[in-house]
Amino acid sequence: MSPDGGHPDDPPSDRNADGPAARDTSVDDDTGVDGDVADSDAAGSGRPAPDTTADPDTAGGSTPSDGSTSSDGGTSSDGGTSADAGRPLPWARVAGGSERRRRLLVGLLGITAVALALRLVALGGRIFHWDEGRVGYWILRYHDTGVHTYRPIVHGPFLPVVNDWVFAFLPASDFAARLPVAVVGGALPLAAWLFRERLRRTEVLALAALLALNPIAVYYSRFMRNDVLVAAFAVAALGFAVRGFDTGRLRYAFPAAASLGLAFTTKENALLYVLCFLGASALLVDHRLLAARARGESARTVAGRWRAGVTGRLLAHGPTARASLGRVGGVAVGSVALFLGVVFFFYAPRPDLWQALASPAQLPGVVDAGTVGAAEKFVDTWAGGSHQDHPYLPYLYDLGETLAYGAPAVVAFGLFGVVVDRYGIRGTGPREVVTFATYWAAASLVGYPIATDIQAPWAAVHVVVPLAIPAAVGLAFVVDSASEAVDARDAVSVGLAALVVLSALGGAAAANAAYFNSTDEADKQVLQWAQPSNDLKPTVEVVGEVIADNDEGPDVLFVGSRPPGSDGETFYVSNESSLDTAPPGGPAWHDRLPLPWYLERYDAEITSTDPDEGRDTALSDPPPVVITKDYDRTETAAALSGYTAFEHDFRLWNDRVVVFVETAALERVAPERVPEDNERV
After folding, report:
1. Letter string b/e over residues 54-93, b meaning 16 or more CB atoms within 10 A of that residue's CB
2. Is 165 inside any structural domain?
3. pLDDT at residue 78 is higher than 60
4. Bigger pLDDT: 48 or 518?
5. Where are the alpha helices (DSSP H) in 452-489?
6. Dihedrals φ, ψ of 489, to 5°?
7. Contact 179, 83 (CB under 8 A)
8. 79 lies in a domain?
9. Statement to judge: residues 334 and 446 lie in one domain
10. Are 124 and 192 members of one domain?
11. How far apart are CA 189 and CA 206, in angstroms?
């Protein structure tokens, strides 16, 4: 991505330069904020200094007290000529720059702390979703057996591998299972720091706030799914790449490569992020060509200038051309190796990886399984399968509905921000980072209804994250306008701006309240149909206590049956021991979710009845917990004696489950849960 974002104070000669961005460095609040910029080795050449230049971020970015550096690159106050004559100086080297940058960082850390609190408080308070239960069960099996292989249907191996480590230190629980996603999602606002050269200070803070508070980002950061993970790692990769471009420092290639590798370990749609990045970059190049043509420049002239700029960058990292190219090549090879190493480490099957480390002869096979083999599985399941065989418009409509309900502030501020930036309302015209993010968001909006396999609201995460950048421009404009109105004592403008901001925050609070009210059909735009009612959670906890109290025979019996009007089976698994290895079960087992996650945690012994077996025979010697669907409640209750029934919404809106618990066992472990006689059987 090229850095042509201008500022009103930029020298005209630098504003459209094709080398490193000419950045405004005045100490006005509307400027960028970074001091990690190397001096050019020739004024206006566009060549960054070698990496041996002291980094102002680590060196303190000291500023002469006499003001001997001028923001316009002119003559210093002592009569000398600025070393950066003809172009702006790094922000941190301007008087007050370090302090302003420190305040910005403190603000970002404060916002991040709020984001983490929103995600960690009561993180385990909601019952597991169907998907969480499925993946959670397989993680527990991996944690117990040490056996794990990549299964594309549950996406990347990041969560199984990381949660296996988490469960080594924390007891397996809803909180612990969601913890990696919550921490990464809570840290996402810090990504705004990486774009500090491209955005004004207020915009950087606005971007962090939007990523911290958006209802969709918050909700799915409290959800053991991969969408927030892939978005966060991909944004980090882009941010580090932008930092490398802005500073001319090669070292940023390594965190960029590692972040991109982590993105590919979370979910296969990391590939879509790369395609969006490439497409948006191509459009930005086209913008530059059109702008050059409007100035009367030929494509050959522009290409020559770009070629000179690229050459200058390649040769700026050593005392000689050979040394510089060698260093660039070494960093490129190292970055690719780091990316592949991260991907291989996560995708390699377990325990084969550890065995190969002890027996190197096995390593080629493990490497093949963790790279080529994993890629083939991905292609077979997602690229070559039928998961995308669905009508487009209903999926697009659902995604738009989710955005309208769960991210109205980001959408509204995003559209406003595009106008503000494009028409130079606070600047000289469109900045490339804002345009880039706009294209990225638009591509995600159009593309995900094609790529996704189900109508799921979590796809909106991949639109909200890029849209947050132009939204930050719009929100910052409102905030800055309010500040100016305060200075001018314009009460009406202050009130309107405050109303806009508070409305956005209120929308976030209202949508986040749905986290526990997860079966309300009014919230279906943000929730997914397989979320059970949260009143199932205390019943499940009681079941765990009853299981711990039971010291003989099976603990739980699932009553197998056939749903009305269907020939299929539900709840029945002919060989329960088959569930000890992955992938477990089939459709009948999946109908139990998310209960297997909890029952595995409780180390329950489970059995199930054949749908063709008579109820009286199947329930002649029942265990303390019997589970059935609501349409089988009457027949099951007739075959039981001395049990208490708990009925809950099992899936969103249209499916219910009945949990029968032996009343005597319930009285021993949780007497307060024994209901009135009319709920006993």
Report:
1. ebbeeeebebeeeeebbbbbeebeeeeebebeebbbbbbb
2. yes
3. no
4. 518
5. 461-487
6. 60, 40
7. no
8. no
9. yes
10. yes
11. 10
Is residue 82 within 8 A of residue 74, CB to CB? The reply is: yes
Q: Is 550 within 8 Å of 480 (Cβ atoms)? A: no
Contacts of 661 (CB under 8 A, 6+ apart): 542, 543, 546, 624, 625, 643, 644, 646
Main-chain dihedrals φ then ψ at residue 484, nearest 5 degrees? -65, -35
Residue 483 and residue 548 share a domain: no
DSSP-assigned letter for residue 188: G
pLDDT at 32: 47
> Amino acid letter at 480?
D
- Average pLDDT on 546-568 reads 89
pLDDT at residue 43 greater than cutoff 70: no
> What's the domain count of the chain?
2
Q: Mind listing the pLDDT tens digit for each residue in 242-294?
A: 999 888 899 999 999 999 999 999 988 888 898 888 888 888 888 778 777 77
Say if residues 543 and 665 touch (Cβ distance below 8 Å): no
Query: Of all residues in the chain, what percent are helix, strand and coil, respectively (each to 5)?
Result: 60, 5, 35
CA 454 to the chain's CA centroid:
19
Q: Do residue 275 and residue 382 come from a single domain?
A: yes
**What is the Cα–Cα distance from 191 to 373, expressed in whole angstroms?**
33
Residues 605, 680, 551: CA angle, nearest 5 degrees: 25
Residues 573 and 490 in one domain: no
Residue 497 shares a structural domain with residue 572? no
Q: Does the pLDDT at position 464 exceed 90?
A: yes
Residue 567 sits in a domain of what CATH number?
Answer: 3.40.190
Domain of residue 452 covers 100-507
Going across the sheet that includes 655-662, the strands are 606-608, 556-558, 625-629, 655-662, 643-651
Residue found by looking up tokens 């077979």 in the block? 380
Relative orientation angle of helices 299-314 and 321-347, to the nearest 10 degrees: 80
- 3-state SS assignment for residue 647: strand
- Whether residue 519 lies inside any domain: the answer is no
Rounded CA gap, 229 and 212, in Å? Answer: 14
C-alpha distances (whole Å) from 264 to each of 234, 272, 339, 451 are 9, 10, 9, 16
Q: Comparing C-alpha atoms, which of 150, 581, 583 is closest to residue 377?
A: 150
Q: Does residue 496 sit in the same domain as residue 565? A: no
String of DSSP letters for 279-307: HHHHHHHHHHHHHHHHTT--HHHHHHHHH
**CA–CA dist 161, 142 (Å, integer):** 9
Q: Pick the last residue of a domain from 487, 507, 527.
A: 507
H or E segment to which residue 590 belongs? helix 587-590
| Burial class of residue 199, CB neighbours in 10 A (0-12, 13-18, 19+) | buried
* CA–CA distances in Å: residue 654 to residues 473, 540, 631, 649, 657: 43, 20, 12, 8, 10
Same domain, 547 and 484: no
Domain boundary among 459, 490, 507: 507
- Could you tell me the CA-to-CA distances from 523 to 120, 514, 595 in Å, in that order? 22, 7, 23
Distance CA 178, CA 381 (A): 26
pLDDT digit string, tens, across residues 401-442: 888 888 888 998 999 999 999 888 777 678 889 999 999 999
- 285-306 mean pLDDT: 80
| Residue at 33 is within a domain | no
CA 108 to mean position of chain CA atoms: 18
Mean pLDDT of the chain: 79
